[in-house]
Amino acid sequence: QVRMVELGGGTVQTGGSLRLSCATSGAPFNTYAVGWFRQAPGKGRAFVAAVNWNDDSTYYSDSVNGRFTISWDDAKTTLYLQMNSLKPEDTAVYSCAARTSLDNFSATYAARFSYDYWGQGTRVTVSS
């Protein structure tokens, strides 16, 4: 069983930065793909970023590309999301997720249903 715990949320002003972390336990990550999703108030959960640890390829949503960076530690037990140039529309609960299958990953990396394990989320608020 994979357990995932996010840390690092908080309140920041527009243009500021935050770094989220996702600590994992229960299974090694190096055979999985992992990602970040977010859920803004009144909206559904949306894809933010993902990494395929089979080849370390990374993927970003258009809304965060160039501002957010997904990274990980050498042991691949902790996932990070560096968020720069934050905007009020980035306000959301951010969750990390892991998937146990890499089938058709390039076509499904943004699909919530393709992820098997989820953290509880950490809240990010960007004030204007």
Summarize this structure as a short list of keywords or feature phrases:
globular, four-stranded antiparallel beta sheet, 128 residues, 11 strands, seven-stranded mixed beta sheet, mainly beta, 1 helix, single chain
Question: Could you walk me through the main structural features you see in this protein, from its secondary elements to its overall organization?
Answer:
The chain has 128 residues and is mainly β. Helix content is 3%, strand content 49%. The chain contains one helix and eleven strands. Strands 2, 4, 5, 6, 9, 10 and 11 form a seven-stranded mixed sheet that branches. The longest helix is centred in the C-terminal third of the chain and has 4 residues. It is globular, with a radius of gyration of 14 Å. The mean pLDDT is 93.
Order of secondary-structure elements: EEEEEEEEEHEE
Number of discrete helical segments:
1
Silhouette? globular
Low-confidence stretches: none
Terminal CA distance = 40 Å
Taking the sheet with the most strands, its summary is: 7 strands, mixed
Q: What structural category arises from helix and sheet content? A: mainly beta
Total number of beta strands: 11
Compute the CA-based radius of gyration: 14 Å
> What percent of the residues sit in helical stretches (DSSP H or I)?
under 10%
Kindly report the average pLDDT value. Answer: 93
Strand content: over 45%
Secondary-structure blueprint of this entry?
Blueprint: E1 3-7, E2 10-13, E3 18-25, E4 33-39, E5 45-52, E6 57-60, E7 68-72, E8 78-83, E9 92-99, H1 105-108, E10 117-118, E11 122-127
Parallel strand pairs: 2-11
Antiparallel strand pairs: 1-3, 3-8, 4-5, 4-9, 5-6, 7-8, 9-10, 9-11
